[in-house]
Prior knowledge:
The chain is an alpha+beta fold. Helices cover 59% and strands 7% of the residues.
Amino acid sequence: MHTPGAHGVRPWWTRWLIQPQSLRARRWLFQVHAWTGVAAALYVVLLSLSGSVLVYRNELYRAFEPRPVIVRDAGVPLPLPAIEQAARTAYPGYAVREARPGASAGHGVEVTLVRDGQELRRVFHPATAADLGDPVPLGYRATTWLIDLHDNLLAGDTGRTVNGLGALLWLVLAATGAVVWWPGRAAWRRSLRPTLATNWKGITWRLHSALGVWSLVFIAMWGLTGTYLAFPDTWASALDWLEPYDAAQPGARLVDQVQYWLAFLHFGRLGGRGIPGCGPGACNEATKAIWALVGLAPTVLALSGTTLWWNRRRRQRARRGRRTRWS
């Protein structure tokens, strides 16, 4: 057992347990946590809000599923060449790739046009050739756009790579946040509660501290699974190295189960995924609700953390200004 030295200096791990604020490493990790959080705040808010919505992506797709456009009093349908000519007139420079009539005379004609590799789909009135709009509902298109934003930052493979690096920042924030949160053995239970303070600064700090520790496991999980979804081949190679495939024993490996859960844990749709007693009904709805609700926590943490950082910087500038005047 280690005892304090001749001058009563405790070992660092004892100081961390009892009075972590006295450790220089903690102060350094506090700066890492604060500056990483501020730098990534907008990114965190973006992923947090979009991720909470996209827990229900399947429900959104079903709600906004494209349906045939049906017109009343359609009249005598025009021949397809006339519809195609109307489409070319409405969209100069586009070529008609396909004109597809509906199942009946009252269905709109869906026309696919292309220009410079870009595809445009429109529905035209079967009798008047009037442009009736996009065959895909706005809600469906918005859901697809939001998925691309969340997965790829609207930048294809490059955005997916940036997202993978961003997921590493989530892990950094989780690890440094856990160290910074620890208030010492005597006060850790009290720090689990966002108790009211006498001013907004104290309330903001306690909210940030308590919410951060309660959502810590989720934030670390989203960071870890985010790296897997961004770099699946790298993960697969690393896991294969840890447990190589054995043709003589072709059953499922432990690393296969790891990859399975890395893929599904991120989204919260866990019903019917092999958890005992968690089927596609109530349990699945409960896990989605939990993921969607906790998914908002990083937004609150980013906003409260940025507020705390800004207030701290303002106080530092004020102190420097006073010292300058006194000198």
